[in-house]
Every structure is written in structure tokens, then in C-alpha cells.
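User: Please predict the structure of the protein below. I'd like the answer in C-alpha cell form so I can feed it into my own downstream comparison script.

Assistant: Understood. Taking the following sequence of 426 residues as input:
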Amino acid sequence: MSQEQSMRNILKIEDLNVKINSEVPLNPSDKVMHFYGKLTYKVNECPFCQGSQIVKNGFKTSYVRLPPVSEMPVILVLQKQRYLCRNRECQKSFSAQTSVVQAHKQISQNLRRSLIIAMTKDRSMSEVAAYYNVSVNVVQRLLDELRAQMKPNPESSLPASLCIDEFRSVPKRMSFIAIDAQHHEIITLLPDRKTQTIETYFTNTYPLSERLKVKHVVVDFNASYFGLIHRVFPEAMIIADRFHLIQMVLLAIDQERIHTMKHFDPRSLEYRTLKFHWRLFLMSYDKLNQREPQWFPHLKDRKTQEQVVWQGLDTDSTLESTYLCGHKIAEAIQNNNPSKLVSALQESNGVGERLAAVIRTFKHNHLFIENMIQTGCLSNGPIEGVNRKIKQIKRTAFGLTNWLRFETRIRIEFTYKTRKRRPIRK
């Protein structure tokens, strides 16, 4: 293999019309690798007048940026052949073209692909631009070019099950998101969560025959979505989100613990028990260690986790009733046990005000909870994971103010999926 071919393989240049000059040595003290090449080929027809009187007319130098090699920027100094049409009616000139780089551009096709792959990972645009020797504006323009390709296909069908939720996007704005409950693919992202915006999008994008295919919609207890779902998806069954139900119950238990804790002196044993071991009060009672004592520094004693919990519950009867009733409700929801859930909701005497409000909410929306128990496996867990990744994208970018670019970045990270691979050793 010749030295020129080795350089072509390293630079991933497949166009045979590009000749790499292998005689120019690389300067190791340079901060950038310069490769020199020439692009020329025979032209038989003018692209403007289709005439055949074509002559060569010198060269034009282009500085083409390629992907880094050995953590160093790479620039291909490419001499492009110029051509002149000698036809009297034409007299136009043009340059030779190559698949390495588009016409009138300096960013090579390989570098564009590298930028797209880099944006599928958790990296800021400024970091990507600095690593690949381009400006941030280049990365932003690439995002703008990809926006048209990332738009959802209007002819695509809606899934049978949807998860809907909202997330904080650009400053002071909550945005709407809907995903496929089974395959976890993003269906749509809308800049706000207004009912009119959501209804207009679905009615204008999908015909009624397509919206009738949606049979389940998983949602939290956001009352504004209930009427919207019935209008947009007439055949859909509204399902309460299991994650939010349990979160509401555990939050009520924790708030009651804090309310009880504030009645004691901060130096007292009761205060320290409720203050420093709050995680034990949120754990399921069956998961508490009931046999093996351990040392608790804040209590200065050896106890089992069960003993610590009961030591805190003995401080207040309301806290004890809230704890026992709340965990019965959470366990019934987790195990899809309707009879146990009904009995737990009825045995709510003596609970705190916060859990009592949660129980009233459950009773008011009992139909959606029954739908959740019937379907079994559907929840908003997948969409919470998507929202978590969206938050990470915004955190890495130090905040985004442009909604269109934020949406494109989200779709890129969830559409282009790179496989993880082990180190190649041989």
C-alpha cells in the first residue's frame, strides 16, 4: 500500500479524483495537521450551456476541515481545478466538485456526520464545536438543517397507548410531551401545555379515524387533561399514573412526619428520630430490617430499623395512623389489589390532613384508578425517564432559550441511537 493510499484511509477520503500529496512532511510542532491535495478530472460538458468547449482555467484553494486525528484538528488544503466554457454565448467558469465536501463549503461530509453523532451524546454545543475545530454557529446551523428531517411524519399512525406529561423547557415555560407507552418513542413535543395548543395539534395532524385507535392514555391527576382526552381521543380510557399516586401518598406521610417533628425540641430523642431517619418512614414496612440491630449514631443506640420506625410513630397517634394507612394504600397500588385498596381508603380514621386530602382525591378519581388496576402494566414511568434525560440535556447545555433548537436536540438524542461497544484490542 502506497503512502498516499494510507493517508486516504486515515482521512476517510474515497473520491479517487482527490490526489493527496504524500511528499509534504507534517510539522510536529504545529497545532493542526495540514494535508495537501489536488482535485481535477476531465469535463466533457458545460453544466450551464451543455457545450463541449471546456478548457482548464487554473486552480482555486479551499481549506476543508476534516474530523480530528490523534486529538488534533485536520485541515485539507485542496486545490480545486477551475474550468472555463469557451462558448461565446456562455463564457462561464466553474470548479471541480467532490463527495468529500459540498460546493461552497469548508466543512467536510465526514465532519458533519461526526458533529451529528456528537450531538446524540450528553455534550454541550460549545464543547462539540471546540473539539471538532468549528464555531458554535456551525453547530447551530447544522441543528437548523436537521430540524426539517426530525419533524414527525404526519402519515404515521398513533399507538394504542399514550403517556402524556409536561416538562420545564425554555425559561419560564412548561412544554407538553407525549410518547408511546409500549415502545417509549416520542410522539410529539409542543412548546406549551395549553389545552388549545394540544387539541389543535392532534386534530390538525391526525384524522379522527387515526385518533380513534388510541385506547389508553396514562396521565397524572392534572384536571385540564381529562376533558381534552375525551375530545381528542373519544375511544381512549384514562389511566391514572401509578408513579404519581404512590408519590402523593409518600409525600403526605413525609409531610406529616415533618409536622410532628416540629413539635419537639431539636435536642430531644424524638426530634432526632424523626429528623435523621426519614428514609425509614418512606420504606415499605416489609422491607425494614426486623432482626439485625445496627448502630444509629444520632440515637446513640443499637436498634433494628423496625424499632426506630416504631420509636418515631409512638410520638404521635396521628402520625402512626397516617403511616399505617398510607403504606397500605401504596402497597395495594403496587400489587394491583383493588379490594385491599378499597379497604385502605375506608380505614382512614385518624389520619393527618394531608393524607386525608389525598384520599379524597383518590375517591373523586376512583374511575381512573380502577382503569389503572385493570390494565396493570401501564404507567408514566417511561415518560418520567424521558423527562429526566431532557433535564440532563438542558443542564449540560447550561440552559437553552431557543425552543426550536431545544426540540431538535431532544429529537436527535432520542432518534439517533449509538451502540455501546467494548474496547477493540486486536
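That's the full C-alpha cell string. The longest helix spans residues 242-261.
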